[in-house]
Predict the structure.
Amino acid sequence: MKLQEIYNGLKDLAEKLGVCVKEENLKTAGLPVRSGLCRVRNRTLFIMNKHHGLSQKVELLSACIERLPHEEVYVMPALRDFLTARCSGGRPARMTDQGGGKTGLEDPAADRSE
């Protein structure tokens, strides 16, 4: 699964859980602000710094979703495997550059010789 697909899946999952994901330019906030979960006018938001790289966005959003009750919501199997590996402290699949600007996940078991 490509990194962009994981990020899109995480954003969709967040929306199912009632969290609106917004990418904002936090450099212009005038205050030391970080990406994260917050409540504004009874809405739960995840404010993401739009200047973060895709892998950092995936890391931040998946860490947020881990803390939310997502077990009863349908999640694509590959995305569920990614989150389960993160939650269990296991070694999740690596995000890799597949050349040509394509980035995806690589199964760590594939590195093992038989």
